[in-house]
């Protein structure tokens, strides 16, 4: 069965921004959609989030993995730990390393196996904006694309694709839905 997993970011929840809308849209297309509330969302930490995800979510060759903001390094950390590939990975406002991050930052991947992540993520799409106020700009998307291959989609003036702080409601995301429903493998 087609399986979609939506991973929110810092201060997030499964109903933030376009998450609830995308969940309903994918369910109408026959997906089983899981959008967990990640623990301690106000202080995200991969050493907490990764084991939680691996213990509570199911990943297989039909999985569509979608991360937003801090959900993106979580998605990469999951892919680094899986033993077999998923169908597709989509990172929205993703990043590798933001300005000001220290080597011991809780959301920084520690010694990632980029080849394993690339192999397990299988079919990557990166959505970044040219004006993300948190620094998850197209430059971060390009850094991810250089490491993992895939398709970088740069949107003009779209900010963080949803932010309470910067008053970006972003309740729907039609282009993301189109990418989710692509049937072809690369």
- From N to C, what is the helix and strand string? EHEHEHEHEHEH
The pLDDT mean sits at 93
The percent of residues in helical segments reads 25-40%
The third-level CATH topology is Rossmann fold
C-alpha geometry: globular
The largest sheet is:
6 strands, parallel
Distance from N terminus to C terminus (CA atoms, Å) equals 20 Å
How many distinct beta strands? 6
Structural class: alpha/beta
CATH architecture, by name, is 3-Layer(aba) Sandwich
- Indicate the multimeric state: single chain
Description:
Strands 2-1-3-4-5-6 form a 6-stranded parallel β-sheet, sandwiched between helices. Strand 5 (124-129), helix 5 and strand 6 (151-155) form a beta-alpha-beta unit. It has a single domain, classed as Alpha/Beta hydrolase fold, catalytic domain (Rossmann fold, 3-Layer(aba) Sandwich), CATH 3.40.50.1820. It is built from 6 helices and 6 strands; from the N terminus they run βαβαβαβαβαβα. It has helices spanning 19-28, 46-56, 71-81, 114-121, 138-148, 174-180; strands at 3-7, 32-34, 63-68, 88-92, 124-129, 151-155. By secondary structure, it is of the alpha/beta class. The model has no long low-confidence stretch (mean pLDDT 93). The protein is globular. Helix 2 crosses helix 3 (71-81) and helix 3 (71-81) crosses helix 4 (114-121).
């Amino acid at each position: 069965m087609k399986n979609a997993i939506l991973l929110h970011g810092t201060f997030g929840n499964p109903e933030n921004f376009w998450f609830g809308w995308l969940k309903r849209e994918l369910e109408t297309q026959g997906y089983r959609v899981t959008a967990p509330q990640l623990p301690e969302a106000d202080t995200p930490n991969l050493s907490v989030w990764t084991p939680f995800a691996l213990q509570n979510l199911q990943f297989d060759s039909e999985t569509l993995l979608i991360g937003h903001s801090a959900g993106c390094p979580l998605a990469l950390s999951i892919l680094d730990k899986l033993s077999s590939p998923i169908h597709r990975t989509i990172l929205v406002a993703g990043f590798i390393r933001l300005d000001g991050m220290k080597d011991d930052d809780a959301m920084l991947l520690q010694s990632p196996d980029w080849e394993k992540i690339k192999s397990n993520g299988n079919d990557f799409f990166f959505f970044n904006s040219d004006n993300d106020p948190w620094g998850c700009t197209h430059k971060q998307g390009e850094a991810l694309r250089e490491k993992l291959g895939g398709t970088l989609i740069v949107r003009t003036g779209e900010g963080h694709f949803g932010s309470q702080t910067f008053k970006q409601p972003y309740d729907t995301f039609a282009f993301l839905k189109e990418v989710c429903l692509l049937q072809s493998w690369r």
